[in-house]
Amino acid sequence: MNILKWKELSPEKQDFILKRAEFDISEHMKLAAEVADRIKKEGDSAVLEYTEKFDKITLTADNMRVKPEEIEAGYQRLEPHIRESLEYAAKNLRHFHAAQMPQEIWFTNVDEGLMAGEKVTPIVDVCLYVPRGKGSFPSVLLMLGIPAKVAKVPRIVVVTPPNEEGGIDDSLLAACKIVGIDEVYKVGGIQAIASVAFGTETIPKCHKVIGPGNAYATAAKRVLSNYIDAGLPAGPSESIILADEFADPEKVALDWMIEAEHGPDSAALLVTHSEALVEKVLPLVERQLKKLSPKRSSFVTANYSTYGGVILTDSLEESIDFVNLYAPEHMEIMTVEPFAVLPMIKNAGEILLGEYTPITLCNFLLGPNAVLPTGQFAKTYSSVSVLDFIKRSSVGYATKEGFERVRDYAYNIATVEGFDTHGLAAKERK
Predict the structure, then answer these.
(1) Which residues participate in catalysis according to the annotation?
(2) CB of 372 within 8 A of CB of 330?
(3) How far apart are CA 93 and CA 386, in angstroms?
């Protein structure tokens, strides 16, 4: 278990904690380039070969795409209480993302006779990448598919690795039905990203791919960034629980473990200035670990010994400074006055307030999107939203009178910048 006093750490150790699992993927990129090149040249045959090699699943071109009846059957097979939970989550997500949508067209009068504004249009198509690796993730499909639907993207394609039987889990099929997506392909990893970057005989070329993935999918996105918009950087999970001496140790212990169970490459940190709180939390974590499956328990334990653990500071202010430096994907403020701390948090993918808003809620059903920037990219990126599925065109309009009023200003600037035709268009316009 890492229990680290931030100010006493060497620069090298601080750098290790800040970088977390944003490991060097150069070797993965070499493989991604090789696979992508073959898929570009050979299409479906290469996709099927790599699916058998990497996923140990034999598919054919005829069954790569999920049939509509498979989606319906998966929805019907899913236990009613799980289906009801997914439908409830979808309702909240639609409500939240609908509130994000900007006006389709807006104008403002910048001066008399001069209007400027924007026109909002959905992107023409998008590929949603839904990972599988450590389990089935219908929540990711909801988080990606619902804002795409709210934005009215005309064509939505889903790629996701096949399960052990060569199919798609019922929960994911049900999520597709709930969102209203019927174009789903049983392909994952490098071969999925390359397929939508170039297009094959079966899988369509897309203009954008978005969604979290493993190191191989991430490497493929980097290699193919000249061919497809790869969306926000979403790597291994990470979280910070920011707590003071007044936090409830039981709730801190429970919430600190949430992102730690994603895997050993995740980073779950408890950041506090209260050593007394840490002394109360640690035995509670040990007690909760006994309730987990062996796999999840091992993930949490490994996490706390590598990229995660406790960061001890000298004050709440120093803890806040650390949060802003780290720029976590998820964070919870578990202090006596969380709303007072909120304005001081500058860099975080999501900020959850108080002791009754665990990351669990936002990961699944509260409404905000849980596909978030990782690896300090929360300093410049935002969570997935409807804005990822729309584009804005600037719009301008001048009346004759407005043009006459500003033509000399435009001519003067054109002259300074040396653009003759720009100046003529303003000066000689009748």
Answers:
(1) 329-330
(2) yes
(3) 11
